[in-house]
């Protein structure tokens, strides 16, 4: 089983739609969680951190479920500019701080 | 701009050759990680350096090696290149406060 798993998609949605991605992780000692966005042929950039209490940033909401070992990202009112790959990142505790990436979920927002 | 710069941005090598990729981390960040990203995949962790010492290593063979210098810049060296080494190589420095990774734009390596 991979440490961090994501559905690669693509998720193909119309503008204005609400879309949700999940990411599961295998290491129960994981402590830090992030969503990164990666545009085609560009480097990943931080979208948002994921806190135990959940957090929201405009149209984006991230949640953490430690019991089931998954994090989620919800995008409301999708825009064309949201088209990208969304990478889930999980970091385990203890010793080295090594962020582990999922393979990413591709989102395509169409007119 | 993340303040992380990588060079070269693109390069082409042939099988068996050696390559050195360079990274200058963001000011104040003493931890640098290297990732390999093949087409359609997520970044795969190669290794991490903290204050010039290797601080963790992923599942990559010994022909992948690295260095971190006193100014926290870093190098990734790959010997005996194979076709499967063709990928985007990403360097990231870490904010000690938040754990956020700041990526450079990457070095795209093609092995023929």
What's a concise summary of this model?
The complex is a heterodimer of chains A (111) and B (112). Chain A is mainly beta.
3D architecture notes:
The complex is a heterodimer of chains A (111) and B (112). Chain A has 111 residues and is an all-beta fold. Chain A contains no helices and 11 strands. Chain A has strands at 4-6, 11-14, 19-25, 30-38, 45-50, 55-57, 60-65, 70-75, 84-92, 99-101, 105-110. In chain A, strand 4 and strand 5 form a beta hairpin. The termini of chain A are far apart. The model of chain A has no long low-confidence stretch (mean pLDDT 92). Chain B is mostly beta strands and 112 residues long. Chain B has no helices and 11 strands. Chain B is globular. The mean pLDDT of chain B is 92.
List the uncertain runs of chain A: none
| Percent helix of chain B | under 10%
Task: List low-confidence stretches of chain B.
Answer: none
Outline of chain B: globular
Q: Give the ordered list of helices and strands of chain B.
A: EEEEEEEEEEE
Layout of helices and strands, plus pairs?
The complex is a heterodimer of chains A (about 110) and B (about 110).
Chain A: E1 4-6, E2 11-14, E3 19-25, E4 30-38, E5 45-50, E6 55-57, E7 60-65, E8 70-75, E9 84-92, E10 99-101, E11 105-110
Parallel strand pairs in A: 2-11
Antiparallel strand pairs in A: 1-3, 3-8, 4-5, 4-9, 6-7, 7-8, 9-10, 9-11
Chain B: E1 5-7, E2 10-13, E3 19-24, E4 31-37, E5 44-50, E6 53-57, E7 64-68, E8 74-78, E9 87-94, E10 101-103, E11 107-111
Parallel strand pairs in B: 2-11
Antiparallel strand pairs in B: 1-3, 3-8, 4-5, 4-9, 5-6, 7-8, 9-10, 9-11
Describe the structure using short key phrases.
heterodimer; A: 111 residues; mainly beta; six-stranded mixed sheet; five-stranded antiparallel sheet; 56% strand; globular; B: 112 residues; seven-stranded mixed sheet; four-stranded antiparallel sheet
């Amino acid at each position: 089983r991979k440490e961090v798993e994501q559905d690669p998609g693509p998720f193909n949605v119309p503008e204005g739609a609400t879309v949700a991605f999940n990411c599961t992780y295998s290491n129960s000692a994981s402590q830090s969680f992030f969503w990164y966005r990666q545009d085609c042929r560009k480097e990943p950039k931080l979208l948002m951190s994921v806190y135990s209490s959940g957090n929201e940033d405009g149209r984006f909401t991230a949640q953490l479920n430690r019991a089931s070992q998954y994090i989620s990202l919800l995008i409301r009112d999708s825009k064309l500019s949201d088209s990208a790959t969304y990478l889930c990142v999980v970091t385990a505790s203890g010793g080295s701080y090594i962020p582990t990436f999922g393979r990413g979920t591709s989102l395509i927002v169409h007119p | 701009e993340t303040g992380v710069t990588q060079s070269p941005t693109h390069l082409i090598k042939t099988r068996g050759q050696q390559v050195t990729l360079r990274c200058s981390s963001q000011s104040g960040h003493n931890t640098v990680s290297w990732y390999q990203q093949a087409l359609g995949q997520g970044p795969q962790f190669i290794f991490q350096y903290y204050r010039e010492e290797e601080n963790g290593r992923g599942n990559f063979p010994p022909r992948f090696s690295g260095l971190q210098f006193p100014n926290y810049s870093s190098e990734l060296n790959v010997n005996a290149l194979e076709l499967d080494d063709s990928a985007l190589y990403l360097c990231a420095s870490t904010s000690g406060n938040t754990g956020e990774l700041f990526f450079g734009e990457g070095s795209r390596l093609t092995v023929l």
